[in-house]
Amino acid sequence: MEFRFKDEEEILLKEINEFLKKETTPELEEEFFRIGSIYGGPEGRKLGKKMGAKGWLCPTWPKKYGGLETSEMVRFRIISDMLYMRLPAVFVGANMAGPTILRFGSEEMKERFLPPIARGEVEYALGYTEPEAGSDITALEISAEDKGDHFLLNGQKMFNTHCHVADYHWLAARTDKTVAKHRGISLMIVDLKSPGITIRPMTTMVGWQTNEVFYDNVMVPKANLVGEQNKGIYYIMSALDFERMYPFGHYQRLFDDLVEYARETIVDGKPLSKNPLVRQKLAELSIEMEAVFLHYYQLAFMLDKGVIPNYQTSAEKLFASEVAQKIANYGMQILGLYGQLKNSSKLAPLQGRMESQYKWSIIETVYAGTSEVQRNIIALRGLGLPSK
């Protein structure tokens, strides 16, 4: 595994980094904090379009689709840097749906859907979870009735976070009820402006919005079907592998802020950073974070070799999300009762970010598959252990 970037990659990354610093505004940071790190808000879209015009949103893609044909290592670094700067970097279109279309979509679908993603003009929302289908996605019930040149959709989705800021729904639906559950699922792209779609907000424990989405006789053209009908579960599994590639820049920033706080905060006449227990815990977290980044870039290395990581993404997502919880938990211990203050309080240390990340770190061990699901994947696919 190569740990260094090429000279031309270093030049590109420096240019992008300087651009991001210049484009960071209080309005953009406020939007990031208010709606989470997701892409699709007004301020985020302004940035996304500027990056898309330079080929930086999807840099690994072929140039004809709006990319630069760079390495995955470069793409991973861009995402990590954006999160470190507290910029919206959770792109469903660019980092989950787009790569799946690139690998499994028809040439017509690629030409139609990929360039707008690369230009930052559109965003997607994941449409997997339902009231009765979470960790077991094969239990989904939303129906897509084949009407010849289109599907007719009826049913409900839940916890579809990007839907209120997205343009398209990356939707898993049941197209055949007569076969085994996993064989009757299809993946399709739905225009969220289609008649018959109702998006209803749900508020998470962090205060950010996710959504439940209702479909009432919604027409979806057959041309929007990804890959082959009834084989959607295989494409969804690949898309989930991309989703589970967990960037860690935002927690690196939180950790760095925590270290600075420990240096500047005086307790009993000396900085917190001089307390041996504090120093030991911060050192342990620093070591674990280094392991997270090595896991993270290993996934990029595999992609550059033409392999879609599978159980390796589960291992990285599991380890990274649980290290994130450790950072948030210990951060709250260092800040004490003040750590519970929200960003609306003038007394809140670190602008109240520890309070929100403490709650969000819990959610991060649930989305894209719970930690228990990730451990099962590692056991079955990585270690080859029996399922029963």
Which labels suit this protein?
Butyryl-Coa Dehydrogenase, subunit A, domain 1, 388 residues, alpha+beta, Butyryl-CoA Dehydrogenase, subunit A, domain 2, Butyryl-CoA Dehydrogenase, subunit A, domain 3, globular, four-stranded mixed sheet, 12 helices
Outline the fold blueprint.
Layout: H1 7-23, H2 26-35, H3 42-53, H4 72-84, H5 92-104, H6 107-118, E1 124-127, E2 143-146, E3 150-158, E4 168-174, E5 185-191, E6 197-203, E7 209-221, E8 225-226, H7 232-243, H8 249-264, E9 266-267, E10 270-271, H9 276-304, H10 311-335, H11 353-364, H12 371-382
Helix pairs in contact: 1-4, 4-8, 4-9, 5-6, 5-7, 8-9, 8-10, 9-10, 10-11, 10-12
Descriptive report:
It is globular, with a radius of gyration of 21 Å. The strands form 3 sheets. Strands 1-4-5-8 form a 4-stranded mixed beta sheet. By secondary structure, it is α+β, with helices and mostly antiparallel strands. The chain folds into 3 domains: 116 residues, Butyryl-Coa Dehydrogenase, subunit A, domain 1 (Orthogonal Bundle), CATH 1.10.540.10; 111 residues, Beta Barrel (Butyryl-CoA Dehydrogenase, subunit A, domain 2), CATH 2.40.110.10; 139 residues, Butyryl-CoA Dehydrogenase, subunit A, domain 3. The chain is 47% helix and 15% strand. The chain contains 12 helices and 10 strands. Helix 1 runs parallel beside helix 4, helix 4 packs antiparallel against helix 9 and helix 9 runs antiparallel to helix 10.
